[in-house]
Prior knowledge:
Layout lengths: L9 E11 L10 H4 L10 E4 L2 E5 L5 E6 L9 H17 L3 E4 L20 H11 L4 H4 L3 E7 L2 H15 L4 H4 L4 E2 L2 E2 L5 H6 L21 H16 L10 H4 L4 E4 L4 E8 L4 H19 L10 H8 L4 H14 L8 H6 L14 H12 L5 H13 L2 H9 L5 H17 L8
Antiparallel strand pairs: 1-4, 1-5, 1-6, 2-3, 3-4, 6-10, 7-8, 9-10
Amino acid sequence: MSNYKLWERFGVEMEFMIVDRDTLNVLPRADVPLGKDKDGNQLSDIEYDDIGLSNELVSHVLEFKCAHPKSTFDGLGKRFFHEIRRANKKLEKINAMLLPSACHPFMDPAEMKLWPYDCLDIYQTYDRIFNCKGHGWANLQSTHLNLSFDGDEEFGELHAAIRLLLPLIPAIAASSPYLDGKYTGYRDARIEVYRHNQDKVPEITGQVIPEQAYSYDEYNKMIFDKVKKAIAPYDTEHLLNHFFLNSRGAIARFDRGAIEIRLVDIQECPNADIAIVELEMATLKAIVNGKFAGNTHTLKEYREFLRNFDTTRLAELLTKTTKDAENAVIDWPEFLAVFGMDSANTPAAPVTAGDIWKHIYSVVKNNLTEVSQSFMEKMLERGTLSSALYKALGDAPTHEAFVTEYKKLADCLAHNRLYGISE
C-alpha cells in the first residue's frame, strides 16, 4: 500500500478452517482449493480477479484476501462469498467444506500439520521455537483489516486511534467461546490463547495492545529493536522477519505503508466480516477526525488526549472484553470520553462495551454501505456470535450438539447469512 494516503486504501483477509462435512474433524487439505500449476506443482497462492487465496502455517486453514488494495467496500462481501463458494465446490469432492468461527470447538491441536510447501523452513522454525501444536497456533481464525498511511504524521494519528479501538473489538467480533469440547470461560478464547502463544519470547506479542509509538523511529525503538534482540538466540539462521514476528493486536507494516488490525474473530459469513471491518474503519476515521470530541476540546487537544492512554490499562480493558465481550462493564471515565460518553452524556447505569458500540454505530452508520448497515444492526441486536453460540450450547455441550450447531455455521457461510437470526 506504499504511498497511499490515510483512508485511501484498505485490504481485508479472512481465514477459514477446512473440515470433514460429516464429522467436522479438521482436514489438512488446503492443497485442494489452491490447486496445482500447469507443471503439476502445488500452488500456495492463487488469484481470481480481485480476491486471492493462500495457505497459512497449518494445512487445515485457507486464507481469502483482497489481491490488491481496495478503495471501496461496495460489493466486497459478495466477492469474498463467490470465492468461498468456489473453494467449497472443490472441497466437496473430498467430502470437505469450510467452517467459520475463530476456534474449532473440539479439535486436538496436537494433530495439526504444517503447510509442507512454500515457506516450510519458516514454519518449521516457528514450530521449533514455540511448538505450534497448541490452540494459539493451530486453532485460530481471524479477519484482518489493513489500513494505508503515508508518513509519520498519518501513522501517529492512525496508531493512536487503533490502540483505543482494540480493547472494544471482542465486544463486536467475539466468535470463539469453546475449546477442547467445553466452554472456556472466555467469549473470545482466540485472543486469550493468542496472547500466550509466544510466552517464550514475550517481546513478540507484548501486551497485545501496542506501545505508545507514534512515529517510525519510536516504533523501531520501542518494538522492532526489542523483538529482533529477543528472537536472535532462537533464530540463528535469520529466517524470521521482524515485520511478521511482531504479533501485537495491530502491527505496523512500514514496508508497505499500512497498519494491520488482527483482533477480529472470523464471523459466520463474509457479509458479517465486512460489516465489522467497515465499522472499524468508520470508527477510526471518526476518532481521528474528532467526531466524538464534542465542544470541550479543539481537534489538536483531542488528538493529544488520545495519545496519552497507558498500554497496561488498555490491555486490562482488553482482558475484560476478551472474557465478557459485549457484556463487559466499562467504568473508565477517560476511555468513555474518547467516544463522547463521559458522565455528562451517559446514564447513571453501568455502561457496557456493547453500549459503546451501539453509540458508535449511531454516529458513524451513514458511512457504512447499505448491506453492512443491515447486517450490523442485526448483529448489534443479537449480540456477538460467541454469545449466540453460548446461548444455544451452554457450558458443557455434547459432542453431537457441537456437530449439529457448528454445521449450522457452515450453512451460514454457504449462504452468506447470519446465525441465530430469523430471516
